[in-house]
Amino acid sequence: QTGSVSGKVLDETGLPLPGASVVVKGTTRSTSTDADGNYKLAGLSNGSITLSVSFIGYQTLDKAVSISGNATVNFQLVPDAQKLNEVVVIGYGTAEKKNLTGSITTVGAKDFQKGTITTPEQLIQGKVAGVNIISSSGQPGVGSQIRIRGGASLNASNDPLIVIDGVPFSGKSIDNAPSPLSLINPNDIETFTVLKDANATAIYGSRASNGVILITTKKGGTGAPVINFSTNNSVATIAKKVDVLSADQIRTFVNANPTAAYDAGKTFVSLLGKANTDWQDEIFQNAFATDNNLSIAGKFHGVPYRVSAGYLDQQGLLITDKFNRATGAITISPKLFTDHLKIDLSLKGTLTESHFANDNNNAIANAIQFDPTQSVTANNQFGNYFEWLRADGTLNPNAPRNPVAQIMLRNNNGNAARSFGNVRFDYSFHFLPELHANLNLGYDVSKGAGRIFVPAFAATSFSTNGSSTQSLNTSNNKVSEFYLNYAKDVTSIRSRFDVTAGYGYYDNAKTNYSFNEYSATGVLRTTPKFPFSVDRNKLLSYYGRLVYTLADKYILSGTMRADASSRFAAENRWGYFPSVGFTWRIAGENFLKESKAVSDLKLRLSYGETGNKDGDTVGDYSYLAKYYSNSNTGQYQIGDTFYDYYAPSAYDPDLKWETTTTYNAGLDYGFFKGRIYGAIDVYYKKTKDLLATVNIPVGTNFNNNLITNVGNMDVRGAEFSLNFAAIKTENISWDFGFNAAYNKRKVTNLTLNPDPGSKQGAGDISGGTGITIKYNAVNQLPGAFFVYKQVYNSAGKPLEGVYEDSNGDGVVNSSDQYFYKSPDPKITLGFNTAFSYKKWTISTVLRANLGNYVYDNVSSNFGIKNNILSAAGLINNAGVDFLNTNFTTSQYLSDYYVKNASFLKMDNLGLAYDAGKLFKNSNTNLRITANCQNVFVISKYKGIDPELTDGIDFKLYPRPRTYTLGLNVGF
Amino acid sequence: CKKDALNLKPTNDVTADVVYATPAGYKQELVKLYATYALTSPTGSDNSDIGGLNAGFADFFRLFWTSQELVTDEAICAWGDTGIPELDYATWNTDNQFLRGLYSKSILQITICNEFLRESTPEKLASRNITGADVSAIQRYRAEARFLRAFQYWVLLDGFGNPPFVTEEDAIGKTNPKQIQRAALFAYVESELKAIEGDLADPRTNDYGRADKAADWALLARLYLNAQVYTGTAKYTEAITYSTKVINSGYSLKANYKDLFLADNNLNNTENILTINYDGVRGTNYGGTTFLINAAINADMSPASYGVPSGGWGGNRTRQNLPALFPDPNGTVDKRGIFFGTKSNVDDIGVFTDGLRVTKFKNVTSGGVTPASLNGTFSSLDFALFRLAEQYLIYGEAVMRGGSGGSTAQALTYVNNLRRRAYGNNSGDVSTLSVDFFLDERARELYWEGHRRTDLIRYGKFTGATYLWPFKGGIKAGASLPAYRNLYPIPTADLIANPNLVQNTGY
Which chain B residue shows the shortest CA-CA distance from A759? Predict the structure, then answer.
């Protein structure tokens, strides 16, 4: 005896919900609602069943139905702010949010940072607890330092693994583009999923120690084509300049020190110019950008598709800096064999064109220190730009170069092209629909080419007649992955099994080509030894996951990955990375099931091991005993002949994986139907066999340093996030998001023979040569500053060269240096809020770092009398800090220059007007936005920006303040 | 895919078997041993063979020079780079990056010489089908490799006393080297130099830039002159024996002192015994003579006239003691005094113009031509590790110190040969000699050539208070240094890395 059940699924306002899923619990029977919200399930056995109706963004609703004949059951769903039944991508599969067992945070398009965002990672800056994203500088398209839980490594990479639609990003840079991620159009991105604990990441094994970011791009639509056009137009202005002495202050200072003279018998006073030049004003500009995107998504003959194109044209703050990007993307998602075979094909292509204004930001450094009493131009042979000359009229080779000339007389153009894509087949077996076979084939190819030309008359390379160089590199990355997934509910024992087992093969190659270098006049200067070299590595993997769910409440999940990397010798090649997690959905217990207050409560406990083998220092062939050839500038003369030769490389044949063990405890919570929700996590990470470049016993290898597996590091931390929909009415909504993270890293060993006194240089400053300010040292934070304790006079002024004799041995020498602070923030905070009234929305994002310190290299290098009155026969400018110290010579290692750089930044302030449907009976939607980025910074730090990727402030390309007007039309 | 698909090889790197496949390969690798003390890296000036040290600092000769000159009365440096002020003051500590660099670079060259010796054993040659005349040529290469190793062990013996000790018996890996004591190291260097004597080329018959018997003897003479310091037992007679061997090998003084330090000093040079060869285009490096020239001048001194139009780093000068040893600081009487500037006194270390600049090294040929240079800074001037004049002075000093086998009359002849070249006539001749005379004469003849610290120690004047110079001990008037500073410390980094090592007394 069979019957059927039918009915309507409505939303909270009584409107039909098309596409809602209706499942007979404990069976594979399911359907979805049509355009009018109707559903029908026929051929059901008579008796009692439970229907479960779900729709993204709504709480799942279960109803018991008694089947006998034709029953009618209607459902009205209530929204779930927490979206517990939203499907989230995880490594090799998906899971419903409420069933997630790892520490996973998703950020969807709705919550992205707004404004002029040219690289994808910027979209989620400040949005995820424990994820720090710092743009390297203000250069257009520049990359960011992404740190999840601070990073688990010292010398190997601390970058997370980024996976786009299942295709892992190789991480190798693309030359002649500002950053690898800048070749991905942020407008094509749907969601970011950040995997933080080992239970979530360990299935990525050896690449997972620093967390994983899964990026899902936008896919096809469901019906008639929807066309979306957006345009963002912005102007970027310099938010803050380095505070330097004015031309009059310099004149006053030089006149007050008239006796200082140098060899040629001239005086400094005679060198003073009459101009009042703000060199920073001369090299910075207001920068315009326009970013236009068009997409069409729909369904064609039942096949969902999306086609998009984007064009970005962005100027940089630095004059002549430019970044152009054209992108195109196509996705189609056909389903064949009555939906048993799903295919996702995605292709993306990007072309970029850049003009890089300056080499290594040297013009920025020189604009800070260039004498403001000189004018920009002069009558001379150096393109009529003022330059410091010697008494005999020739160029002073020790002088800083005119920063405007440095930019204008240098033509550095780069082009990059990238295409990446993948095709994914997901086949649900006809005879066993619970079993899926998934094949994913992906590629990522790119090419970067560039030329640099400096004319012969440019002062920067006057003695060598300018230069003409070119560069080219290509990369070719291939991925193939195959996995089987079996998911089965066994109602008799209230259990669900979800088993995945797979194989992956990854081949990453980058080819660097070498070219002759010429002078600007075409004279050959150097030739390369080899036309090209290929850096290649492969990874071969097996992985598996078992998720066992008991009574919808107790979830045990385990993963295992075995990775073999070409970077290690056959004996050490395989690494095994297990994880296990236990999750208790407390909200599913009877005592909470009926609770009106608690809508979700979930305890997560996990343990896992992950690996790391990436990073420039590790290299692709470090384990091999090999000889490398000299370059053509490294020959040696014997007799009348210049010889080439080979040199043995230092190597460690026993090189192996770095391993990080992570313990994580987390609590996900949701109250009042998800109006308030969030998570708390605490973790402890322990990295052993650190891939670190350390001192080895001298004489045991072909270098005194070696990249080897030495050292241990601990990371402890806690994260908290809270989302609160404070007001949710028809006309007004007000949402808050808040996240906080505490993270502390500590080096616990660095040497083969553990020694508490060992340290390894981790960052040099500019000014002198080889002055190391940051060290990785045992029992310290990585990159801690190693400095002298400054002594101050009663007025609080630092006494030049007077330091504390910390060890009390009567002599002040480098034995008195101590570790003082580090660039690591202790606490990072993120806050965002959006207030909507009818069609208007105002939103803001704020971020704060607490406890991070910066070394003020601008002041320590330029702010001394001997730099202003340079013995090289010229005058330089200094930062205003000079007025505090009045130092004569540089005091680089004084802790005076280590400054508290805690800050609060308003990243974004936006106003949006959502006009909705423009005309009655038309589908045209209009949205107008206005945004300001980098609105303000509050910090005790006096330098240009307290937020730096390496904690040393010297010649930062300033991050602009950007005003954007945007228009979005959909029809 | 196949499992061995994971065995990837670099594009342009090769294995030892490829490198050493042919006799020509052995010659190349011998050149590599010499190149190691001329370059910071085989891949040019931006790279360093030494981990944890800036490439610009990582040159052997620059480090050696710094350890031998900057800590003495002959030189002082204006720069504030970590470790430099403490060397100016001779108050270095165990972390000093330049001392660590020298120690590492010397041992690196030893390690590479060991590798060459492992790859050139008779068994290896046989396995590579190398026979006949090639075998005997390689036999000579091996002797040169052992010479270069002995030279570096002498550097360590002189500077650090008790360094780690590795030979070709110690394979590459992680086994910690044992420490050798100074007297034992002396004996080792001595025995090596004697053992290879027969295999080396006769004096002045080898390729320019390669060691021959004379270089071997010259190092032995230097070693014996300082034997009292190294072992407690004087060997002045042996110093006389070996310096005499060098002197009688057919070398003669170059006519003009200044020509020794000009960029064509590789041509028709009758005085230099073994040089480090530099080239401004094909063998570039910020150390060596590039450093000697550039660090001693600044933009205001017309760098182009020193052959480095883009250069002039404004760092090194001499303290007032050195010019004071000359009849006049302008070099009009004794033409060896080649100084620039007007203010002899160093009042402020940080002011480059305090103290006279030493401008005897120039990247200009005797014909006034500046050799090609990649960046207008790199020098092509070769530097003589050993030259005849030093052997004259060793001979004379050893005679004065009581060694037998020589004569005061002969010593006077040698000394006056040097002084006649310096004065241009016999007006500077001396008629009597004393032990102390040689310390001053060595300064006049050999200043800034990397001898001063060793000389002051041999005369008991480096530490203690018998001789003070400005800023010695960190005080402008000069202060006593404790005796343990006659030796440099084992760098902390290696002391931690290698538990076999014991720190030198006093540190």
Answer: B493
How far is C-alpha A92 from the geometric centre of its chain's CA atoms? 22
Q: Which domains does chain A have, with CATH numbers?
A: 2-76 (2.60.40.10)
Residue A667, number of CB atoms within 10 A of its CB: 16
pLDDT in tens, A853-904: 999 999 999 999 988 988 778 899 999 999 999 998 889 999 999 999 999 9
The model's pLDDT over A7-55, given as tens digits with 9 standing for 90+, comes to 999 887 778 887 788 888 777 677 888 878 889 888 888 888 888 888 8
Token pair of A556, please? 């045990």
Residue of chain B with shortest Cα separation from A266: B300
Least confident range of A24-33, A280-289, A718-727, B128-137: A24-33
Instruction: State which of A9-13, A275-279, A391-395, A585-589 shows the largest mean pLDDT.
Output: A275-279
Q: How many beta-carbon contacts under 8 Å exist across A and B?
A: 324
> What are A224's two structure tokens?
């008639």
Q: Please, which residues bridge with residue A88 across strands?
A: A95
Chain B positions touching A565 (Cβ under 8 A) are 6
pLDDT of residue A260 exceeding 60, the answer is no
Residue by residue, DSSP assigns A875-900 as EB--BTTHHHH--SS--TTBGGGEEE
- Residues sharing a CB contact under 8 Å with residue A516, sequence separation 6 or more, in sequence order: A524, A525, A526, A527, A528
Three-state DSSP class for A561? strand
With bands split at pLDDT 50, 70 and 90, how would you rate the model's confidence at A746?
Answer: very high
- What does the block give as tokens for A880? 């205003």
Q: Determine whether the interchain pair B108/A396 forms a contact, defined as Cβ–Cβ distance below 8 Å.
A: no
Q: Which of B9, B51, B298 sits opposite A872 (nearest CB)?
A: B298
| Confidence at residue A199, expressed as pLDDT on a 0 to 100 scale | 86
Chain B residue with minimal CA distance to A504? B1
Q: In degrees rounded to 5, what are phi and psi of residue A152?
A: -110, 5
**SS3 label, residue A438:** strand
Specify the pTM.
Answer: 0.89
Nearest residue to A966 (alpha-carbon basis) of A924, A914, A923: A914
Using CB atoms, which residue from A463, A637, A871 is nearest to B352? A871
**Binary contact (B54, A769; C-beta < 8 A):** yes
Tally of CA atoms within 13 A in the half-sphere of A71 that contains its CB: 22
DSSP of A704-747: SEEEEE--EEEEEEEEEEEEEEEEE-SSEEEEEEEEEEEEEEEE
Spatial separation of the C-alpha atoms in residues A806 and A815, rounded to whole Å: 8
Is residue A344 within 8 Å of A331, Cβ to Cβ? yes
Residues A114-148: pLDDT tens digits? 888 888 898 998 889 999 999 888 998 888 889 99
Closest partner residue to A697 (CB to CB) among B45, B95, B164 is: B164
Tokens (6 digits) for B172: 């590459």
Determine contact, residues A153/A658, Cβ cutoff 8 Å: yes
Chain A CB contacts of B375 under 8 Å are 463-464
**How close, in Å, is residue A958 to chain B by CA atoms?**
28
CB contact under 8 A, B351 and A866: yes
- For A668-712, write each residue's pLDDT tens digit: 999 988 899 999 999 999 999 998 888 899 999 999 999 899 889
Cα→Cα distances A893→A318, A449, A788, A954, B492, Å: 31, 41, 6, 15, 20
A119, two tokens: 């690289």
Chain B: residue whose CA lies nearest to A630: B42
